[in-house]
């Protein structure tokens, strides 16, 4: 059995060299992808069994889905770091990373060596033919639509997931958000009923009797799709991916909205959303498509800060022109060149 032991040792060493070379290759190809290793975060004594032996299907996991791409990688890593730092049971959080570039797996594993995670490849061609031009090019990226396909990408045993954008930090225990009751609804999110939902759709939408009755009797409110609790079991049962795709097909022909992946969600779910406390999405901190615009927090408690909009905290910090709230993001940044 000695030769087996030696071969096993050789194989492990070769695998380690391959992993390091892959990470080095990514970092040489993408200079921005250079991150410090995260500290290891352990469960407190009050946490239940983490489900290590059960894999992704453990009933004790809090499931979180986040996309990973080169442009927003720094934000995604900061978001994960913030979740771990504020979780009482960080080892019970399972991260589902959705990627369109498969070479990011080695980098994320080297940054978070002890993280419960799985990488899912989202093929751009899944949604590319359905994407229409938007007010910002970033909103046209196929990965921006991956949230529409979580029910297909994740294992059937994953019945609930928290979807989070890459430009936010969590400053509270994610378990509190996970335990939110959805009642009969399929998704939960903070709603903003004072916002004018009509502005998200074109005159062609409101003047066409085929479409303008869509929201009738629904008490529809705006919600931001960057923070959602999703009942995947209901989503699969009622085929919501196909419903969203249907509106995207109509958009390609009729041009009924201007803003990326949000309007189809509003068309399908507005008025049918389980309301979640606004503390879980203090959004708009990036500014409304105006470079250099800074925003204040809304009144009330804060559990999650979200830099939705055109300005991102890592870019403003690097330019030495940060907004005041960007300094709250900085402590979670693991990018090596930022300190």
Strand content: 5-15%
Structural class given helices, strands, pairing? alpha/beta
> What is the helical fraction, as a range of percent?
25-40%
Shape: globular
Radius of gyration: 21 Å
Strand order of the largest sheet: 3-2-1-4-9-6-10
Task: Please provide the ordered H/E string of secondary-structure elements.
Answer: HEHEHEHEEHEEHEEHHHEEHH
Describe the biggest sheet? 7 strands, mixed
Question: In angstroms, what separates the terminal alpha carbons?
Answer: 50 Å
Number of strands: 11
Low-confidence stretches: 1-8, 10-31
Overall average pLDDT: 88
The helix count comes to 11
EC number: 2.4.1.-
Keywords: Cell wall biogenesis/degradation, Glycoprotein, Glycosyltransferase, Membrane, Signal, Signal-anchor, Transferase, Transmembrane, Transmembrane helix
GO molecular function, one term: glycosyltransferase activity
GO biological process, one term: cell wall organization
Describe this entry's structure for a reader.
The chain is α/β, with parallel strands linked by helices and 339 residues long. It contains eleven helices and eleven strands. The strands form three sheets. Strands 3-2-1-4-9-6-10 form a seven-stranded mixed β-sheet. It has a two-stranded antiparallel sheet with strand order 5-11. Strands 7-8 form a two-stranded antiparallel ribbon.
């Amino acid at each position: 059995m000695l030769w087996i032991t030696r071969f096993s040792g050789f194989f492990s060493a070769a695998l380690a060299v391959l992993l390091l070379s892959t990470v080095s290759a990514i970092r040489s190809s993408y200079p921005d992808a250079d991150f410090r290793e995260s500290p290891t975060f352990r469960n407190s004594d009050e946490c239940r069994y983490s489900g290590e032996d059960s894999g992704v299907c453990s009933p004790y996991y809090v499931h979180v889905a986040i996309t990973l791409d080169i442009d927003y990688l720094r934000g995604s890593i900061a978001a994960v770091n913030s979740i771990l730092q504020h979780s009482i049971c960080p080892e019970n959080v399972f991260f589902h990373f959705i990627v369109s570039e498969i070479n990011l797996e080695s980098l994320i594993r080297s940054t978070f060596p002890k993280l419960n995670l799985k990488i899912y490849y989202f093929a751009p061609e899944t949604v590319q033919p359905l994407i229409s031009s938007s007010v910002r090019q970033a909103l046209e990226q196929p990965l921006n639509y991956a949230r529409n396909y979580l029910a297909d990408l994740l294992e059937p045993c994953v019945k609930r997931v928290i979807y989070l954008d890459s430009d936010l930090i969590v400053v509270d225990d994610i378990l509190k958000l996970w335990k939110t009751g959805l009642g009969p609804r399929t998704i939960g999110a903070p709603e903003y009923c004072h916002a004018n939902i009509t502005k998200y759709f074109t005159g062609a939408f409101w003047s066409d009797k085929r479409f303008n009755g869509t929201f009738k009797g629904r008490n529809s409110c705006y919600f931001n799709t960057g923070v959602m609790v999703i009942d995947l079991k209901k989503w699969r049962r009622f085929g919501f991916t196909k419903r969203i795709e249907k509106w995207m097909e109509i958009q390609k022909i009729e041009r009924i909205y201007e803003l990326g992946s949000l309007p189809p969600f509003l068309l399908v779910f507005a008025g049918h959303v389980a309301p979640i406390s606004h503390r879980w999405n203090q959004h708009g901190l990036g500014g409304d498509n105006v470079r250099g615009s800074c925003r204040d927090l809304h009144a009330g408690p804060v559990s999650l800060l979200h830099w939705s909009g055109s300005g991102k905290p890592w870019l403003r910090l690097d330019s030495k022109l940060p907004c005041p709230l960007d300094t709250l993001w900085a402590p979670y940044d693991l990018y090596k060149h930022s300190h």
